[in-house]
Amino acid sequence: MGGRTYRAGLCRRCGTPLVDGGRRRPKRFCSRWHRIRHWISNIVEAVMDSA
């Protein structure tokens, strides 16, 4: 019956293997703090590149 395959990736911040619980979007980070740190580092990098 149309078995689904889920892609379990790695955290973009620390590389920890992620467990995908069948969500519509795959997880990208293992915790909220890693998502925030990634977002902040992208902003700082953009500001430094434009200066």
Spans with pLDDT under 50 lasting ≥5 residues?
Answer: none
How can the largest sheet be summarized? none
Question: Which structural class should the secondary elements be placed in?
Answer: mainly alpha
The geometry reads as elongated
Rg, Cα atoms, Å: 15 Å
Estimated helix fraction:
25-40%
Instruction: Tell me, rounded to a whole number, the average pLDDT.
Output: 83
Order of helices and strands: H
Q: How many helices? A: 1
Strand content: under 5%
Separation of the first and last Cα atoms: 55 Å
Q: What is the count of β-strands? A: 0
Structure report:
With 51 residues, this protein is mainly alpha-helical. 37% of the residues lie in helices and 0% in strands. The protein has 1 helix and no strands. It has one helix at 32-50. The longest helix has 19 residues, at 32-50. It is elongated. The protein starts with 31 loop residues before the first helix and ends with a helix.
SSE blueprint and pairings:
Elements: H1 32-50
Summary of the model, kept short:
By secondary structure, the chain is mostly helical.
Features:
mainly alpha, 37% helix, elongated
